Amino acid sequence: MERIPILQMGQFLLVTIQVDMHDRLALALQDDLTNRIVKTQAQGVLIDISALEIVDSFIGRILGNIATMSRILDADTVVVGMQPAVAITLVELGLSLTGVRTAINVEQGMALLRSPFGASPEERDTHAQT
Amino acid sequence: MLKHEVVEARSSADVLVVRQQARAWAVEMGFSLVEQTKIVTAASELARNMVDYGLGGTVELEAIENGSRKGLRLTFTDQGPGISDLDLAMTDGYTTGNGLGLGLSGTKRLMHEFEITSQVGQGTRVMITRWR
Ligand SMILES: Nc1ncnc2c1ncn2[C@@H]1O[C@H](COP(=O)(O)OP(=O)(O)OP(=O)(O)O)[C@@H](O)[C@H]1O
Ligand SMILES: [Mg+2]
Predict the structure, then answer these.
(1) According to CATH, what is the number of the domain B3-131?
(2) What is the value of pTM for the model shown?
């Protein structure tokens, strides 16, 4: 079966989604990423979705699962490059992507992963409340 | 009616074809990028529901007119188990699978018109329209 490649860059894993994913491909990515985080003890995962033309409830759920899974495995996840039209649609659909950190592009995403507070939304929220 | 096309949706690979066709029609009819994205997302949700819950079905794409207004109408029809409580199914967060329960309610927000009819044991039909 076709797979989405996962690249390793130091302590980080990098995924660029370049194709319109069918559901099984997205589920395979979720499994592959989980295994790779464990195997490489990666500290962060960066997912570039700039080529994705839609994010529906299924892809939204997968992105949420990946973020949750990586947090359990002590890695941060940042989703980068969401197209504006996709973001507008996502909000109207009602998808909140709770727990998923986002950044404008790969550079900012990497900066977020490298920052001392990490990219964990909980830490950020606690920080903002105090 | 200007023209119409029917696409089968039986597997998750077919959902991709539905998305591609919805996009092609939306582009051809001159919808903006944001509108195209809403239409394709709605089509993806309803096609997946048919595959996941409705044992697969068909999607009819039509270019329609109302006076000077042009619209794209998509009709999703399956002969699956049907939905016993439509109000419940339309509630944000309600799912009998392990979804987010946003497909139906979210699709309604993305489109101008949304009509759902369902009969237990007979199947489900969802008709959505977006006007230009
Ligand atoms: N074509 C269908 N045939 C039978 N039941 C359906 C059909 N479409 C939806 N349903 C029922 O309605 C419920 C709600 O559908 P909806 O698309 O809103 O959420 P979901 O598919 O469960 O999750 P999500 O779409 O967020 O991934 C489904 O869980 C299912 O029980
Ligand atoms: Mg659904």
Answers:
(1) 3.30.565.10
(2) 0.93
